Amino acid sequence: MNSTDTTRLPGISYTTARVFTAAQMVDLYARSHPSRATRDNEADIESMFAHATLAATAWAGELLVGAARVFTDFTSMAYLSDIDVDANFRRRGIGRGIIQTVLAELKPGAKLLLFSNEEAEEFYKRLGCEPCPRGFRLVNK
Ligand SMILES: CC(C)(COP(=O)(O)OP(=O)(O)OC[C@H]1O[C@@H](n2cnc3c(N)ncnc32)[C@H](O)[C@@H]1OP(=O)(O)O)[C@@H](O)C(=O)NCCC(=O)NCCS
User: Fold this and answer.
1) Looking at the predicted structure, is the pLDDT value of residue 7 above 70?
2) Domain count of the chain?
């Protein structure tokens, strides 16, 4: 899906096509995750989104209220990173809407892979995600 869609919650539109600025994303992260505000800067955000395959975003009019980055081949797998919803807009289906917007871009059978933080585990379970016990990560030094 690459056009706006307002069917999930009146007033909220979902898209993978809308252009946004790094400043808007920094602002969303500050509204979503106050502890992130100290580590995000516009140059990093610019790079993080410039190199992602998809940016799924949710909008209340002109206000960016949710976003996720995805790295995908559209066919076999997609890695989801940093899904965030404005704290004032949570529990209204926006996180689910963002994930559905991503899934709509992928071929049936493609796997969506992600790391959860502790607070978001229940959210992913409610969406039908299953834990993957053999996940690994390596932080570049
Ligand atoms: C996790 C997050 C994206 C969820 O967004 P959201 O818009 O509130 O989620 P939704 O309203 O679409 O919720 C979908 C389902 O998950 C449930 N859910 C959402 N957050 C939950 C939570 N913290 N605990 C338990 N259930 C939760 C909802 O009740 C809903 O269930 P239902 O449809 O069966 O009623 C949001 O809380 C957030 O931005 N958190 C801060 C950033 C973060 O931690 N991101 C995850 C990084 S791994």
Assistant:
1) no
2) 1
